[in-house]
Amino acid sequence: MTKAIEGYTQLLKNIRERIRSAQYEALCAVNKEVVALYWDIGRIISEQKQDQGWRKSLVQGLADDLQQEFPGIKGFSASNLWRMKSFYEAYSPNEKLAPLVARNRLVS
């Protein structure tokens, strides 16, 4: 192999590694934000259910409205909203986990 070809091969390898690294970091950031979003939605529903006595019909209405507002985004069905609430309620008492997720909250 000539020196130019070896240099090109190394350059290509370095750029590929950088692209893969950036893709991985972007995926990690998105996942972190999604977990924080689900945590916060679960918190809001949990608080509303406790304070206002929300029932299934209200959560179903919320799910319908969210799906209408964000038609291309999946994950806001009534059953998923209840899962978000359960996720929050299951892990919010955890002294180590709760601060980690709460630190990244999207909705106040």
Written as H for each helix and E for each strand, in order along the chain, the element string is: HHHH
Give the proportion of residues in helices: over 70%
Structural class determined from secondary elements: mainly alpha
Number of strands: 0
- Radius of gyration, in Å, reads 21 Å
Strand proportion: under 5%
- Outline: elongated
Please, how many helices? 4
* Unreliable spans: none
The average pLDDT value, as a whole number, equals 86
Major beta sheet summary: none
Oligomeric state, counting identical vs distinct chains = single chain
Characterise this structure.
With 108 residues, this protein is mainly alpha-helical. Helix content is 78%, strand content 0%. The protein is built from four helices and no strands. The longest helix is centred in the N-terminal third of the chain and has 50 residues, at 3-52. The termini are far apart. The mean pLDDT is 86.
